[in-house]
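User: Hey, my collaborator sent me this sequence without any context and asked if I could get a structure. I don't really work with proteins. Can you help?
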Amino acid sequence: MSKLPNAPLVEVIFELRWKVTDKEELTKCQYLHGDLYASIKDIYNFREALVAPEVPMELYLNIPAHRFRVAQNNYPLVQVGPGLLTLNTIDSKYNWEEFEEQIINVSKRFLEVYQFKSNQEISLILQYFDFFEFNFESSNVFEFLSDNLNFSVKQNFYKSKSNPNNLNLGFHYNTELGSLSISVIRGKNIAKSDGIITQTNITSKPINPDLNLITEWLRKSHEFCSQLFKDMTRGKLYDSFNSIKK
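Assistant: No problem. I've predicted the 3D structure and written it out in structure-token form, which is a compact way to encode the shape of the chain:
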């Protein structure tokens, strides 16, 4: 499914995580970025180091250490570090079919260059960041949530003539696909416009590092998140994403 013509999407991130449990594996991770780059440089040939080479590797476990882009300052991009592989893209570059193919391609090449132990498992994460422009000073955020995002928040302990000027809510659920986390916070977009950012995050249960399992989970998770977004914004807000901007 392609994205909506007027979507509020900001960024989509896929993550593959694993536990680095001993010094032997930590040492193996020192060579990972070079091996991975050699495998993917036909597509992601622009390299960036994100940490200084003198920083001990154990200090950036599960943190991106190197980044590979299709071109300078461009997307999609691949990030890798000890215990972490990500593929990121942004709204202007996003089409699900293309992004899914990119994830599978990068995952395949990663699994070819990084040899996991026989009993080792991985976790997968799919994240969506959406932005809705909103003026906290002139409008009531409780009303916006109820009218547009299909959930209600209210309080009876404090009376004020002014509107709430901040927002930080979170919801967590267990699903068949893994753990679902939804965050709703005040934030700004790249243009520095004020508004509301929603982060939808689904994290798999530990699975074997198998490309078929990754592909299956990815398809189901995207379908789940896509339906969740439709249900969350159902009504006039969702209808506005299909309208053509004038």
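In plain terms: Helices lie at 23-29, 32-40, 96-113, 141-148, 211-232, 236-241. You can pass these tokens on to your collaborator as they are.
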